[in-house]
Amino acid sequence: MLLINESITYYTKYEPWLNLKIQEFNQLGYHQINKEDLWKYVVDLCWKRNVPAHYYQQISDIMKITPNHYLDYAAVEAQVYKVTSLDDMNFEGLF
């Protein structure tokens, strides 16, 4: 798993690719997904066990992500996230 400092370094390195993927998601109508969310998906799920050795493999991992892959991940994250009350939840994106 990537450490926090490594994750930030990687984020800046892959930001153009994340932007490209977010543009693709926006064209498909998924406007609520941002590059930080997508990066969290890459670090927490795609590269959880190991980061591919080569740059082109890492880019390929990012470019293979579909909205369904991300939304499945987000649904699981929402189910395991502990919220003590409704006051702690952010409902702005729902309206």
TrEMBL record:
Organism domain of life: Bacteria
InterPro entries linked: Post-transcriptional_regulator
Name listed for the protein in its UniProt record: Post-transcriptional regulator
Originating organism: Carnobacterium alterfunditum
